[in-house]
Amino acid sequence: MYIGLHLTNFALDTPSEWIGSSLAEVVRTAEGSGFSVIAVADHLWQSPWLGRVEQNVLEAYSTLSFIAAHTSRVELTALVSGVHYRHPAMLGKLVTTLDVLSGGRAWLGIGSGTSTGDVEGYGLPFPPLRDRYDMLEETLRICRAMWTDERGDSEPVHGRHFHVERPLNAPQAVRNSPHGGYRPHPPVLIAGDGERRTLPLVARYADVASLRPGPELPSKIELLDRLSAEIGRDPREIRKSCVFAFDLGPSGGGVGRALEQLKWLADRGIDLVIGRVAGVDELTPLEVLGREVIPVAAEFGP
């Protein structure tokens, strides 16, 4: 099992001029501690589930580019980009640029999207969920066209919501991954485990599934594997991941409990956990995870 770091708070209420140096320390420490992926949330306001909406939140792809410049190994993704924030061709270009400048470390993390209040507050479009699912599939088709046609000479991509006349993408993505096993484009992570719309899209388009770590997890993985097989994909091509929350406590006493939870997930087929870390700005929790959790979890498997 691999462990990733999910960044959702950025130095909390720290003055703006300190955020960059604090974030650089966090991501360098995370890479040095053995985290394999660094993910950032893609919202414009803080989620009310994680804090106050007034807390610091940075735009996802600017932040990922900054992280790329301060690291050399970890893979980089949004967790996840809602389809309502950006036109698909712009999103594909952003991920491609991140991939090129990071030496092939970018993922496309995508989902149907939610609002933290930012959509309403900024007056951004937020179509109904049914339309956002349609937009999600159209986005995946457009990004795939951009990543599989060197000259953009393939047929235009037309959908109900988006139209791309020429999916030209130059420079092209580096198209590799330190862990290997992906199709020849930046890995696509799709979040969600809805059985009617999301999991069929995961089966068709995803390299990584981001699932919820609840009691229904085994049945969701079983369904995903069945859907993949039905369309001729080897279910093993799709990595199974989930979000997590690490809270080791002030003295690291929560390590044992965290390992128990990770082992439960690994036994059910999860091979990547991307977790928020309580006290991440203090760095010590990252170092404890690097010493006491990441090496042990690396031995876990179904």
CATH superfamily: Luciferase-like domain
Number of helices: 10
**According to CATH, what is the topology?**
TIM Barrel
- Average pLDDT for all residues: 93
Classified by CATH, the class is Alpha Beta
**Uncertain stretches:** none
In terms of DSSP E residues, the strand content is 15-25%
Strand order of the largest sheet: 3-2-1-11-10-9-8-5-4
Give the overall shape: globular
Nutshell version of this structure?
With 302 residues, the protein is α/β, with parallel strands linked by helices.
Q: How would you explain this protein's 3D organization?
A:
- Helix 1 runs parallel beside helix 9 and helix 2 packs parallel to helix 3 (88-102).
- Helix content is 38%, strand content 15%.
- The radius of gyration is 19 Å and the shape is globular.
- The strands form 2 sheets. A 9-stranded parallel sheet has the order 3-2-1-11-10-9-8-5-4. A two-stranded antiparallel ribbon has the order 6-7.
- The protein is α/β, with parallel strands linked by helices and 302 residues long.
Summarize this structure as a short list of keywords or feature phrases:
two-stranded antiparallel sheet, alpha/beta, single chain, 302 residues, 15% strand, nine-stranded parallel sheet, SsuD_RutA_monooxygenase, 38% helix, TIM Barrel
